[in-house]
Write a structure and sequence with these properties.
The chain is α/β, with parallel strands linked by helices and about 240 residues long. It contains five helices and ten strands, in the order βββββαββααβαβαβ. The protein has helices at about 85-100, 145, 155-165, 180-190, 215-225; strands at about 10, 20-25, 25-30, 55, 70, 110, 130-135, 170-175, 195-200, 230. The protein has an eight-stranded mixed beta sheet, covered by helices on one side. α5 (about 215-225) links the parallel β9 (about 195-200) and β10. The longest helix is centred in the middle third of the chain and has 16 residues, at about 85-100. About 40% of the residues are buried.
């Protein structure tokens, strides 16, 4: 790409996935889903306490600085109020960096959404050949006061099932893991057919959430390991003793 890169790519830090090296957020603003526990609720600067906006200066960042990049870590860029043309511009930009890497190791992009049915609109895009497609499955239960505008768990699982059946690399994150019914939750994760499941705990401790017991978490992990790889985040290891 013939352009000047005037801004550094953000290195992953804090409570990020361990496999992610950098984050890139070309769409900023308040997330439509408004989940009560979202860490971004307290991090948005006044400039971006607004409806989603496409941020031009972000396209002056060199994505080659990263090897595994979480695109849209600060907002759900596949939420229903984000315009198609913005999403396509982001996907094109990501793919452009890999287009230059003939015979070289590609950048792996993580795209994660609580509205994974929207992924289905874009799966023909070449960027997904080198991408992880993820969704959040915090529980099998419905907590409207916590999930607010997020699609229901069943809708997320149904979409991920279709995505996995098409051969794409999928993942599930259970973070923050909420109180659940083990048999039902395991079946929902199985439906998503993820390559791995991430287990995390509520990081915003000022917000009280319904949480499982340590015994319940250990039993869940044991059953999930029978169907896929399980990654335990550092903030969830207190459950394991």
């Amino acid at each position: 790409m013939t352009m000047n890169y005037n801004y550094p790519l953000n290195a992953a830090k804090g409570n990020m996935y361990e496999f992610i090296t950098h984050t890139w957020n070309p769409i900023k603003g308040c997330c439509y889903h408004q989940c009560s526990y979202c860490y971004m609720n307290n991090l948005l600067t006044p400039k971006y306490q607004c409806s989603p906006v496409l941020v031009e200066y972000e396209f002056s960042k060199d994505l080659n600085e990263g090897t595994r990049i979480f695109v849209g870590s600060s907002i759900d860029m596949f939420a229903e109020n984000v315009p198609d043309e913005w999403i396509l511009r982001v996907l094109d930009h990501c793919a452009g960096f890999n287009d230059q890497k003939a015979g070289q190791k590609k950048i792996v992009y993580l795209f994660q959404s609580k509205n994974p049915s929207r992924f289905l609109q874009f799966l023909d895009h070449r960027v997904f050949k080198h991408a992880i497609i993820g969704t959040t499955i915090e529980t099998n239960r419905y907590y409207p006061e916590i999930m607010v505008n997020s699609p229901k768990i069943e809708e997320r699982a149904n979409a991920m099932k279709l995505i996995a059946e098409k051969g794409f690399y999928t993942m599930v994150t259970a973070e923050p893991l909420l109180a659940f019914d083990k048999t039902e939750l395991v079946e929902i994760v199985r439906q998503c057919n993820p390559r791995f499941v991430n287990i995390g705990r509520n990081s915003e401790r000022k917000i009280s959430l319904p949480e499982p017991t340590s015994i319940q978490v250990k039993e869940l992990i044991a059953e999930l390991r029978e169907i896929t790889k399980v990654i335990i985040k550092s903030n969830a290891k207190s459950w394991l003793g």
